[in-house]
Amino acid sequence: MKHLIHRAGAALVSGLLLIGTAAVSQPVAYADDNPYERGPDPTVASIEARRGSFTVADESVSRLEVTGFGGGTIYYPTSTAEGTFGAVAVAPGFTATESSMAWLGPRLASQGFVVFTIDTLTTSDQPASRGDQLLRALDYLTTRSDVSDRIDAGRLAVVGHSMGGGGTLEAAKDDPSLKAAIPLTPWNTDKTWPEVSTPTLVVGAQNDTIASVTTHAEPFYQSLPGSTDKAYLELRGASHFAPNSDNTTIAKYSISWLKRFVDDDLRYDQFLCPAPSTSTTISEYRSTCPY
Ligand code: 9J3
Ligand code: ZN
User: Fold this and answer.
1) Which is the closest atom of ligand 1 to the Cα of 94?
2) How far, in Å, CA of 199 to CA of 261, rounded?
3) Residue 290 Cα, ligand 2 centroid: separation in angstroms?
4) Which residue owns the Cα nearest ligand 1 atom 10?
């Protein structure tokens, strides 16, 4: 099943503005000398927007047609004008399904990533299994899926909620070639991650009573090597389930992290370094800036 789910208003407006100016005849601009930059120069408004500049389509993948994970939904930019995109697999938490993370699919894809929100083999799979499943999903996405030719298989990332977030750390530990990991209110019995070299953004929720930041997100962040690019974002007043619905703070820093480390896009450094101040939405932020 394929259908268009989004047409970017911003793209439409800029297209109209281009008509009647000399700019319309200019070639597509590949900014600087980074071949992986995608989309226009970012602003605070563009990373906080509910949708980015890319029109997104989606395609469901039945669990019956894959092995090693439970199928899912692929969200991808329809444009091929700028070349291939980096890709991100997203895992849900204990007892949950991909629908619990569906909001993140089009929100990230519309910024210029192929995003695969997955189901796990069973909803009670533990973090180590979820990490394996994220890697199997990326393997399917880059080698056998209908969108494999839209993806740069050398630029892959993992995102996950709770046990799925614990799974992102497991995946990064097992596969150092991953370009970015984002554990969201992560849960794991393993509290130490000195093996991870992948740039990692740990997102904790201040009022999480299921995976408290003091026993999960904070020690996970602190145990990542000092030589690993890392950040800790704590969502003020938030619960364990903040990553299960549209959340602009999660989105803006996840977009910035993925752009910076999957696309090597230095235009996004401004949103990560210097570290954001505490605010009505951020109760704590730690980082290893500059990256
Ligand atoms: O994925 C999660 O929400 C993990 C939190 C949890 O309920 O763990 C207890 C076994
Ligand atoms: Zn450990």
Assistant:
1) 1
2) 7
3) 26
4) 94
**Is omega for the bond preceding 127 within 30 degrees of 0, making it cis?**
no
Of the listed ligands, the closest to the CA of 196 is 2
pLDDT tens, the chain, 291 aa long: 333 443 343 444 444 344 444 444 444 555 468 999 999 999 999 999 999 999 999 999 999 999 999 999 999 999 999 999 999 999 999 999 999 999 999 999 999 999 999 999 999 999 999 999 999 999 999 999 999 999 999 999 999 999 999 999 999 999 999 999 999 999 999 999 999 999 999 999 999 999 999 999 999 999 999 999 999 999 999 999 999 999 999 999 999 999 999 999 999 999 999 999 999 999 999 999 999
- What domains lie within the chain, and their CATH numbers? 1-33 (no CATH), 35-287 (3.40.50.1820)
**Of the candidates 93, 71, 271, which has an alpha carbon nearest to the alpha carbon of residue 183?**
93
Angle between helices 163-174 and 127-143 (to 10 degrees): 60
